[in-house]
Amino acid sequence: ELDYQVVSGKQIRIWLADQRLWIIENGVVILDTLISSGKAGYTTPKGNFKILNHIDVAYSNKYSLWTDNWMALYNKTQGYKGYGLHALPYWITKQTKYPSGTIVDGRLYQDGKVYEDINHLGKPVSHGCVRLGLIEAKILYNWAPNDTPVIIA
User: What pLDDT band is residue 97 in, cutting at 50, 70 and 90?
Assistant: First the structure.
């Protein structure tokens, strides 16, 4: 006999050990994707969070990186500590030797942007945020309203 729990509504579950994120709606996984979480010394915090906000294009002064589809994470006890969910970060460049859409050494050159190594997905290499692929980040950004529960384990 199987015992299971069906959770209604939307939620996001992240398994750091597996570097995976699940988007779940009404108990059904609708997206299962690789992520990149915090590297040694920049651990992604575990716990129960909610999405605080949505920013189409965010800039990190601390790391000099741009990120699309930024969603900040907060919880009731800790508040907001600077962590979020977002697409692979990138640098803006005026000139590149590669045509748009080219991937060289894992980096995507697209429309004047150089995206962080796509091969990093599935490995803990971030500064603590949860990075997603470009398409997956856009799907999550459009799907998850503010206050969507996020469980990181």
Answer: confident
Residue at token pair 């290499």: 125
The model's pLDDT over 37-63, given as tens digits with 9 standing for 90+, comes to 999 999 999 999 999 999 999 999 988
Beta bridge partners of 2: none
Token pair for residue 134? 């470009």
Judged against a pLDDT cut of 90, whether residue 106 lies above it is answered with no
Residues in the chain: 153
Three-state DSSP string of the chain = CCCCCCCCCEEEEEECCCCEEEEEECCEEEEEEECECECCCCCCCCEEEEECCCEEEEEECCCCEEEEEEEEEEECCCEEEEEEEEECCEEECCCCCCCCCEEECCEEEECCEEECCHHHCCCCCECCCEEECHHHHHHHHHHCCCCCEEEEC
Residue type at 139 in one-letter notation: I
The C-alpha atoms of residue 28 and residue 31 are separated, in whole angstroms, by: 9
Tokens of 16: 């750091």
